[in-house]
Design brief:
The structure holds 2 protein chains of 2 kinds. Chain A is 0% helix and 50% strand. Chain A is mostly beta strands. In chain A, strands 2, 4, 5, 6, 9, 10 and 11 form a 7-stranded mixed sheet that branches. In chain A, strands 1-3-8-7 form a 4-stranded antiparallel sheet, with no helix packed on it. The N and C termini of chain A lie far apart (36 Å). By secondary structure, chain B is an all-beta fold. In chain B, 0% of the residues lie in helices and 50% in strands. Chain B is built from no helices and 11 strands. The chains are: A mainly beta, B mainly beta. The A-B interface holds A 4, 31, 33, 40-45, 48, 50, 58-59, 90, 92, 94, 97-98, 100-101, 103-106 and B 2, 4, 6, 9, 34, 41-46, 49, 89, 95, 99-108.
Chain lengths: 112, 115
């Protein structure tokens, strides 16, 4: 099994551009999450989903959008990139609420 | 505002030493406290977790101590090895009215174990 796969691994965006960070998992997990990690700040939850068609905001949702049309995929959309969105983005999944999170290896995004 | 406060920011120990990382929280609704380990270029991976109904939990060389009245918990790594060199994050979440995966992370501790 591949686990949680994130693409791309690296991306540089100009201010105002848009992009979608892809996340897919092959473990048939119901719960999926997007976190961002800034240096020295830990990880902060952006959005999460408890199943296909259901999404909810996390701690820092502004400037992002998500959708969950299938169990496997949970893309994160940045509509108008800003320098404050420079970060490493991690997607995670779990089978149920009480199971541990499995993280992908992240997407490093720079907005200049 | 940081919901979970973690210290120290960095820690250097000799092989065989016992590094201790401390975390504190304010929200008494938190009822799940995991520790994650992260190597460079990788995502975090769950190391060990504790619920507030126990004061200590051991898994191999890793121990969580939990003090509910003080709202503090800590990670101890026994007989530390160079392979334990990584960044460690404590976290917290609540079950009721939320999802356990909705984690609030500490800022992380960069551990270096010298051979």
């Amino acid at each position: 099994n591949a686990g949680v796969t994130q693409t791309p691994k690296f991306r540089i965006l100009k201010i105002g551009q848009s992009m979608t960070l892809q996340c897919t998992q092959d473990m048939n997990h119901n719960y999926m999450y997007w976190y961002r990690q800034d240096p020295g700040m830990g990880l902060k939850l952006i959005y999460y989903s408890v199943g296909a068609g259901i999404t909810d905001k996390g701690e820092v949702p502004n400037g992002y959008n998500v959708s969950r049309s299938t169990t496997e995929d949970f893309p994160l959309r940045l509509e108008l990139a800003a320098p404050s969105q420079t970060s490493v983005y991690f997607c995670a999944s779990s089978y149920s609420d009480s199971n541990p999170l499995h993280f992908g290896n992240g997407t490093r995004l720079t907005v200049t | 505002q940081q919901q979970v406060k973690q210290s120290p920011q960095s820690l250097i120990v000799q092989k065989g030493g016992i590094p201790i990382i401390n975390c504190a929280y304010e929200n008494t609704a938190f009822d799940y406290f995991p520790w994650y380990q992260q190597f460079p270029g990788k995502g975090p991976a769950l190391l060990i977790a504790i619920r507030p109904d126990v004061s200590e939990k051991k898994e191999g060389r890793f121990t969580i101590s939990f003090n509910k009245s003080a709202k503090q918990f800590s990670l101890h790594i026994m007989d530390s090895q160079p392979g334990d060199s990584a960044t460690y994050f404590c976290a917290a979440s609540q079950d009721r009215g939320s999802t356990l995966g909705r984690l609030y992370f500490g800022r992380g501790t960069q551990l270096t174990v010298w051979p």
